[in-house]
Protein 1
Amino acid sequence: MVVGDVWLSDRDGLLRWLELDSADWRGTDIDIVARCWEQSGVAALQLLRGMFAIAIWDRHRQELWLIRDRVGARTLYTAQIGQTCYIAPRLRTLNPGRSSQLDLVALRDYLCCAFVPGERTLWQDVRELRPGTYLQLPQGNASSYWQAPPPEWSDEAAPPLA
């Protein structure tokens, strides 16, 4: 089962990879993600281009996979409160279940930098899934499936050295 907010920029390429005719395709982008996952599992993430925050329930393995797009166009938050893990695309959705304890390190970062780097949020029990990352539950294993490539500098376009 796949749920989430999905917009794929390479829909036709994925349909070709799945050996489906794009002219006859009547499904959604979530349907494409589901078919890719059924065919290749976590390796299918290398094929996905676009904006998405997805939850995939693998009933055979009894695992939940939370996946965020490469550049973080869509957000995904988790809050572990006792034995329960809450998942939401927006922080305000977690308001009823989260504690009111502030993460003082995140607050300091926000006051200094005007943003909170990493997976921290302003609340101690709420974490943001980083761009290009998936979280496997119940194990709690977070892994990166994509990293931005290093810039390719030519001698003419190289930044000046300080």
Protein 2
Amino acid sequence: MTGTLLTAKLAVPAPPPELVERPRLYARLDDGVRGPVTLLGAPAGWGKTVLLSSWLGAGGGHGYPVAWLSLEPGDGGEDFWRYVHAALTSCGVRLDGVAETAGPQPAALARLPTPVVLVLDDLDRVTDDRTLEGLAFLLRHAAGRLRLVAAARADPALPLHRWRLRGELTELSAGELAFTVPETAELLARHGVDRPTAYAAQLHTRTEGWPAGARLAALAMRQLGNPAWFLPRFSGDDERVAGYLRGEVLAGQPAPVREVLLGTAVLGQVSAGLVEALTGRADGEGILADLERSRAFVSRLAAWPGWHRYHRLFGELLRAELRQHAPERIPQLHRSASDWLAAHGRPLDALRHALAAGDRDRATGLLARCWPEMLGHGHDEPLPVPAAAAPVDALRGDPELALAYAVDRLDRGDLDAADDMLSLACRRGRRHPAGRRDRLGPVATALRVWQAQLRGQLHDAGRLLDLLGEHPPAGAAALALTGLGAGRLAAG
């Protein structure tokens, strides 16, 4: 005996008073316990414990006996097996002839008349390899009488690949655990927020369905009593969210990983190459893989192999941390990102980073070289921070810079601001020498074509095409012709 058992670790935690029932996930868990292993793998705050406790409260588990064990850092060895023994016996399972401190004893489980469900909450806290090997051995030789349900922030060192290949593993990821818009509305209603359906979609977008973030926001909305004012201001640097993410996510990362997270905070999407360009490391691919495995609010972009993104609120926290602790680094990080993106075929993203850095020469140079590739292409995901505020005095003397800002505003769909920039560029451009006007004219006209298309003014787009002249730049002509063709197709 190494000490007194803490009986609280064997008790199913009580669900929160504002519980949102989730029958779609209860059904997934019921399907899971028909097989040997169910894994809820998601970062902190994705409602793993609440889901398991409410599932059991709703009668989940096919009527099998259910043993619960909440794990803590350092649990392993004899203590782990003592607690497993206690959890099993507390739910009525008889383990005749098995000592408390004995390791895995599959023969005792194999003799049970019905399967037993063992819920291990926070299994990632068990890091002792021999203990995990013993758990896998127990599952392998218990004749199907042990059904493991585990919740973990990172994949435990169990043969998940083997179970996955054999169809014996049921997995619930963050994507499945995320609240839906109707569940978000129900959460707001249970917190007493007036007109919950009016705010549910916006809150869901802000939190990406992250249950802890939605609960923190719902509490604040109930306390403040002004959801319409609060929601647009709710972000990852809100102290309610920031404190949670710092303590539960950032604090658990090694110092080099935290440095990578801060060094890439200015990005909307991140790749191994960008990690290396912005941090000077040579192991960007490994860092991103480790972050993904540890489920540190980093997810892979399915449509772009090798690219990842940060959860919206987590990214906002990282940028707030960067502004607080190293604001002097921000312009250089944007410049480095601009260089890398320009060299890898993403000139529009490169332009946006140059503007965010306030680097006039870099921005206007990119525009001069790459404007046809920028027109109407858009982003897979906009930069997480807008370009720097347009320096009005500088724009008055620099039509190219005004055009660069117009590209940014058009890409964001801010058509009125884009119109101001274009008008300023055209007025000032008339005063410049003929050679410079000749360079500016096609770019400005092409942007007017893009603007007309975005406004749905296809007749104007046709007029602007005429203005391009007899030998228009290919990019501008293609943009205008595409818009006109789409309009005529729609008109029959």
